[in-house]
Records
---
Amino acid sequence: MTPAELSRRVKDAARELGFDLVGIARADAVDEADLLAEWLSLGRHGTMGWMERWRDKRVDPRLLVDGCRSIVSVGLVYYRPDRDAPQPPGTKVARYAWGEDYHRVLKDKLHALLARGRALDPAFEGRAFTDSGPVMERWWAERAGLGWRGKNTLLLNKRLGSFLFLGELLVRAELEPDAAGIDHCGTCTRCIDACPTGAIVAPRELDARRCISYWTIEHRGELPAEAEESVGEWLFGCDVCQDVCPWNRDAPETREERFRARSGDWPPALDDLLVVDGEGFDARFGETAIERARRSGLARNAAIVAGNTGLGSRQALETAAEDADPTVAATARRALARREEVRSFGSTRAGSTVSSRA
């Protein structure tokens, strides 16, 4: 079978499995190794030490799969409208975490695609990756023609927008590569202008240390005071830079039922999250992307939101202030202190973001 024929049949199989986008790139070394090194040297990865590990493999897929010749890049839409997961004030969760953990969904489909490709050609052997592995997925998606990297650093597609999960197959088979994506951002800077914390420091340059998603998901332990305030109402992640993007104006809804928010879990009540224990957290969020924050991270975030907004009951915050996890307890105590400050000095002070409700 020729590389062109094998490529065509693999793409057909990817679409049959439900992927919305599929493209192919030749497995060469990434030409942005210097940019990655500079980003890391500036400390813009924050406490995400794993970004520094396996740096050589991150920029050369041939070190991940011996004999790798081709990369099959896929995209899967996850957008669901607000009506599918009502989010009252104080319970904002990024859309990608509403349904089942995307790592599970993509890996199931990627392994199925790998098996189909192997049945077509024994050389179609390799490994499947989502963002849990040292692969520069957006760079490869752009190289494979799935779209282009927008100014918010996310992959954009003219037809599907940016609410996309990405995955890759690194395989030894020789496939026919696609033309790389072309930038269509033009002079638009809406994502940069709308970022609540200025985390997009320049087009396609993100400083994680200012990013709400980083603070609510990746960072462990207590947050600095300025970071707590920047979190606002976000319990997990942030969608602001995507919500304002013109290419998402007509974003299609996902066809994947596993991304549908489970009715029993939405909306997540702030009081419940403040006092949730490990067993309750696992039962409710163990199969979702929210699991990434861990029980202590989500309870900490709930205390931050309660402190920022005045939402949630004082009783739940007082319970959280006695939590066995020192981070949760300290964060809840600060939230209670902010409420006392508002009660003492009034909620009309300039710059206060906390309501007078106690």
Note: Residues 211-237+261-345 form one domain.
---
Amino acid sequence: MSMKAVSFVANSGTGKTTLLEKVIAILKGRGYLVGALKHDAHRFDIDHPGKDSHRLTAAGADTMLISSQEKLALVKKHAASPPIEELLATYFTDMDIVLIEGFKKSYLPKIELHRREKDSTLLCRGDFYDSALLAVASDEPLELDVPLLNINDPEQIADFIEERFLR
């Protein structure tokens, strides 16, 4: 796939969203079009009771799209989560880079986030060896076969993504 995408993987509570917010802002500041895709293993709802969009979905609409001058939101019911390839090809072809939160079992290139107080082992270098691991961003020194980044330095992580995917 020619789509430029990298997945940030870690156990819950490691700070994926907080770090992604910072990296997105840095890359946007450098002039890139940045997409974000989050995998949610739980049920979520962006439609809220009382809103017209919720009423239309509750009435049985299988697909409901709300659009304004500034943005659009799509609610599409499905029996199973679409494959990551389909999501990227359908919604992100106009982006320079897509930063993904989750999808740790995908083939996508990954940056694993690691915090000393949260995890004793790595997801991608523990019981399972993930060949798609590009780097680890950690708050402690680790012996690795991939580059080690500072999880508390979003500039460094943005630089790594820019050098690897955008030049």
Note: The longest strand covers residues 133-138.
